[in-house]
Predict the 3D structure of the following.
Amino acid sequence: MPERTAIVGSAVGLHARPAAVFVKAAAGVPVEVGIAKPGGEPVSARSILSVLSLEAHGGDTVVLSAEGAGADAALDQLAALLATDLDAE
Amino acid sequence: MSVPTPSSAGAGAGSASLRGIPVSPGAVAGPVARLAAPPRLPEVQPQVTDVDAEERAARAALADVADDLEARAAGANKTAADVLTAQAMMVRDPELANRVDQSIRGGMAAPWAVNAAFGTFRDLLASLGGYLGERAADLDDLRDRVVARLLGLPMPGLPDPGHPYVLVAEDLAPADTASLDPAKVVAILTERGGPTSHTAILARSLGVPAVVACTHVLDLEDGVNVLVDGSSGVVRIDPAADEVTAAVEAARRAREEAASVSGPGRTADGHAVKLLVNIGGLGDLDAAAAADSEGVGLFRTEFLFLDKGTEPSVEEQRDAYARVFTAFAGRRVVVRTLDAGADKPLAFAAMADEPNPALGVRGLRTSRHLPDLLERQLVALAQAAKDSEATVWVMAPMVSTPAEAGEFTRAAREHGLSVAGSMVEVPAAALRAKPVIEHCDFLSLGTNDLAQYTFAADRMLGELADLLDPWQPALLELIGRTAQAGGESGKPVGVCGEAAADPLLAPVLVGLGINSLSMAAVALNPVRAALAKLTLAQCHTLAEQALAASDAASARELVAAAVREWTSAASTE
């Protein structure tokens, strides 16, 4: 399964506004994307509650995964998004 | 609605009145909107016969609640809109919906399935603590909304009828009041609660008229017009227009009169009483610093520690303290060291689960387990004080013995904090005020806790509000005893509880020998004006009358009657 590793670029972590921005983007891609801590069980990137429960802090590494047509493009887009500081206006 | 009994006092042409304890002055009229209690699941879960219909009902309720949140976001300011949008996103969470569906297919009825699905995520977030732990409370609120929708019950939480209203509730929890907007809520009425309840403290800080312990107020229906008088405690139902005009006008005059006196507090004959403000965070700092006061009588430092995953560093603490000292340059700032305990737990330090947190390891007692926490706070305070132009005093909460007072004073002085004192909240400290003050530079009475411990009455229990009344002669006697120890030793004794904010009680406290009163900024002007009308000798007489009264209500009545007589005589001279 295609995977991308990304470092959470938002200082506050994948909480609050950054989490909302990420989940909204994940809902907009054509494939179901999973997000996990390294070695952990992936959860749906479209689920804000699951993403919050990951407790990913700024600087933490997370792994994105997806299958199917468009998976690579979707993963590239979401990994790039994660790496930026989403808390900046 | 059930028609309340018209009260004999002041009831006029056909309209009825309710009466409660006035806790925040001002008069205003408006339509009632009630705070609905959170929905409860019925005892018996119905048998699900049509699984598809049950799933559709659950989905529709989730969507309705999310739509409602988004509609409210559209009409809100940026900060509120962000919060509401994020909440709508949680309600629309596809994983949440999956879990609801699974439970329904397992035989659960929709409200129970919703409850269980929210519960799973709630427990997960709560176990993570900190910021995510706080989101657990958001999930409870969202769950209540969806469950209420499914059960056909009124939406819980603050009402939003689309116009300003008089909020009516059994009592208000901190969670209810956090988002309370004084532009929408023009007055607050509660069936329970007392003078030291969250409702009272919040109403005063917002400057919204409020009456608590107001029996039968929950019988009022939404939309009924009421006139709330936060100075007398009278609530008139369906008042006549001219009555509203007269009451609002009288409240405006009282406010103007209060604002006409300014500067340091003093009695009519010039006896100085320091009027100070209470602050509990940096958010209200500018408003507090702008108020006409001689400084801060109670700077609560809990905001730096509670809900934090790690202990704030000395630097972080120092910077926060320095901001307060800078804002109050040239004035006094009395800092209370951390008051944590089982009821206000620290996320970063293990605290034992106590069956009775109010009587447990809290306040200064926490340094029995965590001595370094206080040490580091004193280091940060000393650093901030050294570079500041404020006069910094420090005091410890929950001191019970002269030895504890001495230990704290010694620790503070070792760090170069030259003025150190103790809070008097435990009756033992008031009874032994003489030996306690020998070890201190000053004392400060926390009357809310002192009332709770003197009367063995939990501050959070609305039905014991009468015992927690600051006019209770037993409480006044302990205040007097503590003030006397101050007078004999030549050291100042202040009051920083809600008692200090009552314009009628303030002269009594001064008569008992209190030198400073610390309160919410909005209470300063009325208290200043009340003191300016009376001489110190009159304050002494009021104190004697209050101490001699048989109970709180008659103490208040005796003092009110005497003040009325003196001030009306003075104005006709």
Notes: The first strand of chain A starts at residue 3 and ends at 7. Chain A has one domain: 3-83. Chain A touches chain B at residues 15-17, 20, 23-24, 43-44, 46-50, 52-53, 55 (CB under 8 Å).
